[in-house]
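Input (structure):
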């Protein structure tokens, strides 16, 4: 076994005779205490004791009283065993030493004196010292004031100091960089403070420490432990620590955490700019100091990105800056349009988009001989790098940068834009692992941005389709004053199938309809268009509300069968809808309605009282086989009707009943402008995040002046035709509509004659002056007339043809008492 040099580890051997005087002195004694043998031989051994007590606890002798030899045992010199004593050095200072005493026995078995070995208390045996020195971990021991006592070679390499250079100096003076936190935003306690805390409390600690040594451009991560060193009595005499460089594992874990954060933080919304902002915020400040995301305008509009990329060689590229986020300024763009950014033809961004490869720019060469620098402990595989070294571009320092990574933003083979990751605050040069992380973050964001783009395109298409199918302008009619509002769901929700309509009917009546198709997206919008067209067609036939909904239910069933998948692996679209169909007659002031699973309208009388709607909603459309019921109620003139979809009253924060109560509270019937009331209702009801479309249709009823309605019974006798004509002529003259007299006389004659000939009594003639002059003839027969072309020598069959040619509209509506044939003549604006 290799022996240590006594000069490195001085151990004194002292022989003390029975009288307590030194009779033997080794060279180690001179090295340890400075006394030569001639200075101590024959002198009492107690003369070696220092005046001050030992720095530590009392010794551990087998006896503490003075021995017969006169050597005091209380200081660990007199008795057999080991003790800690304070010895006097020749130069005047005190040496804390560990003294081990062994008795000397003569031939006769009597005591001949003592042999003592003396070592400094802060030295270890040789094998322990060698293990301490050669340990690959950084080891150090400090006194309670954090003055260096020992460090091994590994620790010396870490702190760039030798043991001789630091022994006796304070930790804070040698390593000032450890006296501050590398990442203040994490609220880390400086390493020196934690070491002092262990010395003060005597409690050990284990932690991971990240620090950047002075003069280094890299932050190291160390797994460290620190613990108190106690004497036999438990008093803290020193603090020790050890640590090993776990930078590779630590930074790999940080990258995984960042990727995990990106997985949950990028793509949370189906919004292109919102997703770009999430990409910009995620790696700041843990990975980089500034991120910018530039996208093609087509991507922002939800259109297909340029394919192939419209990047001409030698030409600049103009993109839109969708996001910018940094640590030192308020650069997070969360509102407002994206700003145009032009990248010159020779710029790194344009080159990356052209080649499809990432580029790393460094302000200075971090390596040796032009090789890549990977940072202390970082595993790096040059195979991950593009050919050649990163670009060393000192000009980026003018932008305040130490490095920049530019990555093309690609998804599903399409180029969407470009992303840059810049460092300015931290001096660490980007490494191969950093490039891999930047490309991984960009790839995750690219898929999310492309999904948002595709969704935006579909949503825009669906919304355009829906708005096209909704009435662009409510028709003019005098039965009700109407106003409406439609608001699609928030941007991260698909367009629904809410719709409404206002359809003028015969007899000055008007139909008010509101509906909601199950599902979202293009399918819902297309289904809504089909239903709206069907309702208009059925309304032209003038079917009662319950019959109309029955036919509409059959249509939805047919649509459902058309959407059945042709294979087990093909998904089917959602089917079903709700609809409320109402008809208001300003002559009788009666509202007739039927509901297919849709909320009933709210009716508020002119005096503010709520008029209950005594109706039972039927099943939603698409169920089939169940009846619908019509209900009627008479409304005072000036009543307010509110038709709405469930998206207006129902949300995650409130149920339907609370929503309806809130809508009633928002409906101020005293407001003169229905348009203003619509805005008030939408603002009051649609707060916070919305996941469904909302539509409201408000109507204020009018009553037709009784002076504008004239009717009479007609006996089933052809002689009554002339009397009916005269009644009509007298009435249009009373209304001042003489210019309509000829046509009115003719159509009344034809319609009354047909009713007498083909119909059944009772027969009734009614004239209505509204926006048009309406002539109606009713009878009890359910036989519907039809228009036909008479032959040249036929004596009849030309009546309805004449009516159709001379008026602007005609038709038939069936009632519970029979049918009504009507026609309408347009009136001049000044009539």
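Output (sequence):
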């Amino acid at each position: 076994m290799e022996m240590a040099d006594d000069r490195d580890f001085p151990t004194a051997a002292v022989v003390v005779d029975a009288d307590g005087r030194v009779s033997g002195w080794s060279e180690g004694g001179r090295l340890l205490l400075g006394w030569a043998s001639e200075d101590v031989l024959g002198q009492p051994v107690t003369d070696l004791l220092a005046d001050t007590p030992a720095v530590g606890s009392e010794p551990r002798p087998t006896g503490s009283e003075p021995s017969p030899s006169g050597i005091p045992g209380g200081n660990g010199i007199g008795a057999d065993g080991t003790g800690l004593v304070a010895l006097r050095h020749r130069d005047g200072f005190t040496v804390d030493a560990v003294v081990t005493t062994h008795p000397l026995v003569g031939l006769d078995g009597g005591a001949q004196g003592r042999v003592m070995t003396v070592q400094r208390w802060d030295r270890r045996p040789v094998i322990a010292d060698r293990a301490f020195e050669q340990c690959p971990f950084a080891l150090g021991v400090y006194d309670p004031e954090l003055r260096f006592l020992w460090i091994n070679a590994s620790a010396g390499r870490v702190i760039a100091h030798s043991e001789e250079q630091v022994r006796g100096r304070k930790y804070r003076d040698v390593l000032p960089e450890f006296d501050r936190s590398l990442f203040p935003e994490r609220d880390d306690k400086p390493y020196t403070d934690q070491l002092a805390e262990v010395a003060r409390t005597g409690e050990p600690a284990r932690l991971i420490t990240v620090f950047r040594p002075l003069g280094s451009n890299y932050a190291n991560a160390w797994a460290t432990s620190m613990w108190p060193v106690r004497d036999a009595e438990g008093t803290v005499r020193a603090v020790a620590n050890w640590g090993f460089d776990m930078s590779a594992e630590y930074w790999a874990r940080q990258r995984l955490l960042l990727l995990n954060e990106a997985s949950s933080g990028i793509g949370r919304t189906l919004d292109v700019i919102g997703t770009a902002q999430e990409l910009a915020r995620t790696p700041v400040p843990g990975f980089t100091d500034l991120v910018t995301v530039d996208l093609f305008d087509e991507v922002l509009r939800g259109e297909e990105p340029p394919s192939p990329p419209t990047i001409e060689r030698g030409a600049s590229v103009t993109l839109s800056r969708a996001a910018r986020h940094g640590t030192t300024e308020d650069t997070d763009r969360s509102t407002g349009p994206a700003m145009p950014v032009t990248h010159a033809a020779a710029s790194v961004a344009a080159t990356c988009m052209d080649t499809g490869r990432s580029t790393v720019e460094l302000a200075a060469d971090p390596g040796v001989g032009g090789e890549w620098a990977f940072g202390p402990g970082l595993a790096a595989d040059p195979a991950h790098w593009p050919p050649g070294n990163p670009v060393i571009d000192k000009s980026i320092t003018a932008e305040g940068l130490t490095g920049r990574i530019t990555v093309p933003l690609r998804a599903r083979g399409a180029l969407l834009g470009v992303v840059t990751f810049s460092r300015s605050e931290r001096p660490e040069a980007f490494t191969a692992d950093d490039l891999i992380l930047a490309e991984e973050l960009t790839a995750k964001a690219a898929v999310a941005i492309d999904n948002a783009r595709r969704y935006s395109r579909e949503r825009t298409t669906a919304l355009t389709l829906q708005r096209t199918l909704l009435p662009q302008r409510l028709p003019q009619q005098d039965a009700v004053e109407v106003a409406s509002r439609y608001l699609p769901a928030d941007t991260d929700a698909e367009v629904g199938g809410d719709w409404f309509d206002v359809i003028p009917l015969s007899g000055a009546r008007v139909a008010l309809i509101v509906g909601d198709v199950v599902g979202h997206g293009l399918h819902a919008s297309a289904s809504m268009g089909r239903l709206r067209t069907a309702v208009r067609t059925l309304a032209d036939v003038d079917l009662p509300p319950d019959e109309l909904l029955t036919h509409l239910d059959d249509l939805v069933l047919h649509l459902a069968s058309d959407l059945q998948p042709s294979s087990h692996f093909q998904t089917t679209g959602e089917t079903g809808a709700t609809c409320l169909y109402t008809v208001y007659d300003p002559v009788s002031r009666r509202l007739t309605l039927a509901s297919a699973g849709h909320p009933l309208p709210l009716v508020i009388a002119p005096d503010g009282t709520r008029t209950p709607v005594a109706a039972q909603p039927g099943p939603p459309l698409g169920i089939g086989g169940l009846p619908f019921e019509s209900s009627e109620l008479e409304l005072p003139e000036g009543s307010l009707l509110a038709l709405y979809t469930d998206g207006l009253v129902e949300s995650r924060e409130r149920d339907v009943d609370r929503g309806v109560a809130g809508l009633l509270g928002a409906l101020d019937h005293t407001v003169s402008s229905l348009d203003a009331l619509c805005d008030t209702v939408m603002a009051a009801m649609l707060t916070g995040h919305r996941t469904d479309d909302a539509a409201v249709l408000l109507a204020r009823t009018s009553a037709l002046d009784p002076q504008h309605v004239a009717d009479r019974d007609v006996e089933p006798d052809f002689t009554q035709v002339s009397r009916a004509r005269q009644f009509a002529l007298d009435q249009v003259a009373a209304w001042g509509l003489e210019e309509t007299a000829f046509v009115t006389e003719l159509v009344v004659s034809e319609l009354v004659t047909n009713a007498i000939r083909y119909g059944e009594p009772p027969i009734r003639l009614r004239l209505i002056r509204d926006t048009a002059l309406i002539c109606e003839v009713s009878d009890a027969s359910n036989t519907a007339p039809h228009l036909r072309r008479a032959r040249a020598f036929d004596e009849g069959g030309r009546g309805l043809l004449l009516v159709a040619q001379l008026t602007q509209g005609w038709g038939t509506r069936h009632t519970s008492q029979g049918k009504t044939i009507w026609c309408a003549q347009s009136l001049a604006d000044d009539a």
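Notes: DSSP finds 20 helices and 32 strands in the chain. The first helix runs from residue 27 to 33.
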